[in-house]
UniProtKB/TrEMBL annotation, chain A:
Residues 121-153 form the SUF system FeS cluster assembly SufBD N-terminal domain. NCBIfam families: sufD (TIGR01981). Pfam families: SUFBD_core, SufBD_N. This is Fe-S cluster assembly protein SufD. It comes from the Bacteria. Residues 170-394 form the SUF system FeS cluster assembly SufBD core domain.
UniProtKB/TrEMBL annotation, chain B:
Residues 223-465 form the SUF system FeS cluster assembly SufBD core domain. It comes from Acetobacter lambici. Residues 156-215 form the SUF system FeS cluster assembly SufBD N-terminal domain. This is Fe-S cluster assembly protein SufB. It comes from the Bacteria. Belongs to the iron-sulfur cluster assembly SufBD family. InterPro entries: Fe-S_cluster_assembly_SufBD, SUF_FeS_clus_asmbl_SufB, SUF_FeS_clus_asmbl_SufBD_core, SUF_FeS_clus_asmbl_SufBD_sf, SufBD_N. SUPFAM superfamilies: Stabilizer of iron transporter SufD (SSF101960). The gene is sufB.
Amino acid sequence: MNALSKDMSGPLALFANRLNTPTGAERQSAAGALARTGLPDRKVEAWRYTALRALGKQDYAAPPEQVDASTVRALLDGVLQAHPAMAALPRVVFVNGRHAPAFSALPDDVDLSFFAHEPQFGLQAAPDRDPLVALNTVLAEDGLVLRVPAGVDAGHVMLISLGVAGAEPLSFHPRHTVVVEKDAHLRLICVQAGQGTYFHNPVMDIRVEDGATLEHVTLQTEGAQAISLGTLYAHVGHQSVYDSFVLGLGGLLVRHEVHAHLAATRGEVHVNGAQRLAGQQVGDITSVITHAASDCTSRQTVRNVLDGHARGVFQGKVLVERIAQKTDGYQMNQALLLSPDAEIDAKPELEIYADDVRCSHGATVGALDDEQLFYLRSRGIPEHEARQILIDAFLDEAVALVVDATAQTFCRSVLAARFAGKGEPS
Amino acid sequence: MPAVTQTREAVEKLGQSTYKWGFETDIEMDMAPKGLNEDIIRLISSRKEEPEWMLEWRLAAYKTWQAMTEPKWAKVGYPPIDYQDAHYYAAPLKKPGPKSLDEVDPELLRTYEKLGIPLHEQAMLAGVEVPEGERMPVAVDAVFDSVSVATTFRKTLEEAGVIFCPISEAVKEHPDLVRKYLGTVVPAGDNFFSALNSAVFTDGSFVYVPKGVRCPMELSTYFRINAKNTGQFERTLIVVEEGASVSYLEGCTAPMRDENQLHAAVVELVAMDDASIKYSTVQNWYPGDEDGRGGIYNFVTKRGICRGARSKISWTQVETGSAITWKYPSCILQGEGSVGEFYSVAVTNNRQQADTGTKMIHLGRNTRSTIIAKTISAGRSDSTYRGLVRVQPKASGARNFTQCDSLLIGDQCGAHTVPYIESRNMNARIEHEATTSKISEDQLFYCRQRGLSEEDAVGLIVNGFCRDVLKELPMEFAVEAQKLLQISLEGSVG
């Protein structure tokens, strides 16, 4: 099948020379879907606020086999030195979408394998509905396949994805799978960082089986010129917990899309997040939380701080199916605009088919409160410090939702290191 | 929970009962052949004795419409509409403009009687003024199918300088005003249905309130869809000059019918400096039977622009009817310090589908908007609130508050909330909150232990749920609205 050679207009053309020869049923079907839909433009409702124009006009090449080790080391050190505890945690490092054993320190208590050895596409991803997942399906080379055996508390695992590129754009499309078996527990910290012009397009397929818990923190500190469009699927079983938090700090265009599926009773999902963006950055947090069983709980708190010409996007949908009685859903999105040119676009959405439910959402947008500033200033705190205190406090209410203390302090340290002294009015 | 079960049963019973206002008036009609093409548009224009510019405007809109496709983004489903399978012009063959009650077609009077329109007062219909000290009169411009056949209170209004007449008349008698404002708020090409309306609209109301005039009465138009297979394309234009104000009521009921009928109205409001427009709607078109057969398709474009500083536009709607409602009364807040309001109760039952909400576009400094939307879903219906709040870069100090609450009665219905919030100004403040729930056991228990029957308790709670909106309705309308709510849901438990 060579469906993709026919219509290669739009951004899809940028991958043209790599899309032509998909092998295997999954890749072929995804290639077909991709050929039909192309990459989404803003007329597609799910991409209403995020344009893929940022992909630019240059072709995206496959990553080279050799990457300069000292550059990787420097980027990795940057991640690990943010907080002293990080270097001691087991980690799996990917460089340009490929596993880099030399930089990894593999965990013990889990079953580990890699997509490159044995491709696993999982059952949740929907390439026919999500063009970026289809793109990943066609182009995926490697990825982490991690399984925590039943009843095991595997502690922390870090998944570090580094992009190393020059001025010529390259793209990588890792495909990760994480399974936390019955009554097991995992604390997963994903970090994305890099330099140069690259396009990171990860897909992660997560299964949290009955009684299990996955605490998942994602830190996006992609390179300043990087585009990162990731999709995550989480299947949540009976009495299990998927507790996630994303901290979005860059690069140029970053989208974190979560599809959480509460498949059995008494499941619990948290899809929290915080973004702090400036310059020309665009950050998009999109989620679809589906309640497909009764007595489940979902919680979502997202906070955005936008400076310069930055644009924040929040699209959060909570879908309560007819069977999902006694659902408890809560969603809150708040934005702080620090500059006259910053923008927030929010679409919190409830779609409810069961009557015995309690669902609510809220959204607020505003500037720093003059009265709060005045209060601090009247106590002798200089204006930029007062602003910094208020901004930090605003974001920290979301960061404080991270249960795992290590991950929480890690997020705080990264924020502090990046934004110390950034309270000046712009 | 027994009370809710009872409510559900009662609601189901209601669905089976005949639509209270389902009747058909037998009046001779002058009909254009089925179908839509340039000739039909020329026919409509010539029947209405319109000037050339109006015809050209229609033809241009028709061209635009032909190039457009029907919008599919709303959360409603219906079989494809054959736009060629409808009559686009139907007029009663009686001479319009009654001089006295005797001249009014008795069939028509009986229709109004069944509708319970305050028109039953003979003096009112004849245009006789109400003596001093009596309650504020209501002027009714009754739109019977496509041609206005009775306009009351012309004299009182004329004395105040207010123009209130069918828009077809305004096109002839006040061409400058109509030409200046028609299509300025909702351009012909705004959307598929507004383009269709602009091409084939047959009638509607025109209101012009001159500078400094407070309209001496509430204006009211009762829309009726009467003849079989005639899509109704109303066009309303309300212009309120500096410092003036008007309250306008729109209410509708339609005869029972088996075939779906398309209704694509356009309403445009223009408010200048310090002007205020209050636009209230009670919509009770035939919703279809319990299996969703028949019923009106209500695809309406309503938009107002606050052009002047400190102007105000307020939309209040109680939506209980129609098989499908697709309606987003909006405000463009251009003037500094202008205010937009949207109060809505939408009740759906059986197989009804409603996708309704508002858009508040903040352009000017210190503009404010309030959105209160209450949705009640029962039976197998689906109800969606879809709203947009957009703050443009120049709208410093803009303020919005939105509250959307949904109440679900029964486990086969759906309630959805889709707000869009877009802010490009750091000094704007936007707050949005939405809840979805059923009637809480706590509330029921509280009422019950104070001696209320379960039915009364449910009635009270539903009533309270809608109160924020109902209290915004003008007196004349509040009664009808409450009646409608009772018919739809609440009467069943009381």
